[in-house]
Structures are given as C-alpha cells and as structure tokens.
Amino acid sequence: MTVETKEKTRDRQAWMGLLARAEARDLARLWEGFGPLPAHEMLRAPEIGGVMLRGRMGAVGDAFNMGEMSVTRCSVRLADGPDGHAYVQGRSRDKALQAALTDALMQGNAADEVRAKLLDPLAEIESQRRASRAAKAAATKVDFFTMVRGED
Amino acid sequence: MQTLSLTGGFRDAPTDAAFAFRAVMNAMAKPGEINSVTGSEPPAGLSIAAGVVLLTLCDPETPLYLAPGFDRPELRDWITFHTGAPFAPASAAQFALGAWDDLPRGDFPLGTAAYPDRSATLIVEVDDLRRDGATLTGPGIKDSAALSLPDRMAFQQNAALFPRGLDFIFTSGDRLAALPRSTKVS
After folding, report:
1. Residue B35, domain CATH
2. Does B4 map to a domain?
3. A81 vs B contacts (CB less than 8 Å)
4. pTM here?
5. Which residue does chain B place closest to A104, by CA atoms?
6. In terms of residue numbers, what domain contains B143?
7. Do residues A27 and A132 touch, judged by C-beta distance below 8 A?
8. Is A80 in CB contact (< 8 Å) with chain B?
9. Residue of A nearest to B9 (CA)
10. How many domains does chain B have?
C-alpha cells in the first residue's frame, strides 16, 4: 500500500467511525440543513443486527466477550457513481442510510461541502460530549495522599 | 469506487426471500415440478435461479463449495457481500454450486445415520430443464413425474443411501427444480 492509499484509508476510517458513533438525531438534524437525500440505488437496504464486543483487560491478556451491541448496516450507490457503506451503532435505519450516503458523497466532488456541513459539526458535537463527560467524571475524582506518619 | 459485485441482490429482502423460499420448498416437496423465481441479478455466468437460491439459503453459517467453473473472484465477492457464506472444500460444505460434471460428488458429506440432515445440498446449473427424461417416483409425487436429469445412475445410488444422501436443486435461467434423496429415479 502506498502512503497516499494509507492516508485515504485512514481518512475514511475517521469519518466512518465518526458517523458510526454519532447520535441519530444529530445526524438527522444536520442532513435537514444539508438538503434532500441525493438520488441513490440501494445495494443493501438498512438492516439491524448485533455484534459481540470483545475486550482485553488493560489491552493485554486474553480477549473476553464484553457484551453485544446493536448495529445497523446499509450500502448505497449514488446515481453518479461512488458506493457508500455504513455500519453504525444503534437501531436507526435512517441513520444507517444517512451515514452510507455521507460516506458515498465524501468520495465524490462534494466532499468539501459535506465535510464542512456534516462531518465537522458532528466532530464538534462529539468532542463536546466527550469533554462534558470527562468533566463530570473529573468532578468525582478523589486524590488520595498519606501524611507523613513520623514513626521513625 | 464502484464494484459490480455489490449490485444484484434482493430489492426487498424479506419479501423476495420469502417468495424464493416458498419456490424452493415447493420444488423440494414436489420433485420434478419446475418453478420460476425472480429477484436476483447475479454476475455473468450464474443463472438467476441459482442466484436466488444462494441469496435465500446461504448465510454466514452455511459453508459453500464452488466448483472450479464457478470459482471466480467476482462471483466470490458477490456471494460474500450478499450472503456472507464462507467458502469451504467439498468435504465441509453444506451447499455446493457447479455444473454436474464439475462437482466432486463423492467428496460431499452425506450425513450420518443419527444426523442425516448433516449432508450437502448441491445446486446444479444445467443448460435446460424439461419435464421429460428420467422417471421419478416417491414422496411428493402422485403417480410419477419426469425430469431431464444429467445422469440416472448417480441419483439411484444416492437414493439407495436413504436416509443419508445428497439433495439436489437444478437451476437453468430463472427456473428451478429439485430432487431430494427420497425420490426414486428410473
């Protein structure tokens, strides 16, 4: 794989991940501002399924099954070419379709507009959500320390 | 980025698959009867009926064997995208796809006496399906039926293994017929 392909793959992973994690209502609201859904052919209609999440304690050791989560997937082809795929969390068919369309548009000429109107606001929402969660968690943090006991 | 292997699945999967399943079930229940199916547009070289059968019966838990004549990248990609079925050697397959002379018929699992269902179903692509040729009798056939089979001896030997044995689905264009192991061929 060339450096350029690697970068492209990383870019696409980034926006697909962003779409997968986004809240359905946020994506729906942004699409309303963006415009009507572009003409497309359905390669795989949105379908709901589940995946097993696996984890490793401290990222080492053996993998264990942590639990299942709902996932919705969808694949579309735009009338003017590119294919878009989406695997998104949750059970919203609309979100899966919107995410697949976003993925397809990002590979075409409208990429800059899509990034500005859909992806950047989504990234903003996500970072706010993370920051507020981190702040809430930080407020409950307790620092333990021990006074010198002077025993010796 | 546009790939042909992504098109040609069911338009409306629940409805199309239900109709197709009904057609396959009827064909199995009434050996020799020829049913028409629609709904798939598989890559060139694969008939509509074979495509419909694959879309309907295969999923990630049914290993599929592709005969050499059908083992092509575009076909593999199509099957993987639309069904998720893993590809397996003949000895581990639950389904197989190929032309009659192309299938290693001796290698497929025949089931066991305790679990006769653990056998393979062969999807056989044929040039033509007609209601003449070999005579069929047995369950699901009132008096006798006729079907243009690619062989007779092989099916007689298969029926003799009952309750073990292979089941067959013959596909040609948009038509399909079936021959379960319970049917006697003469």
Report:
1. 3.40.50.11310
2. no
3. 2
4. 0.84
5. B1
6. 9-185
7. no
8. no
9. A43
10. 1
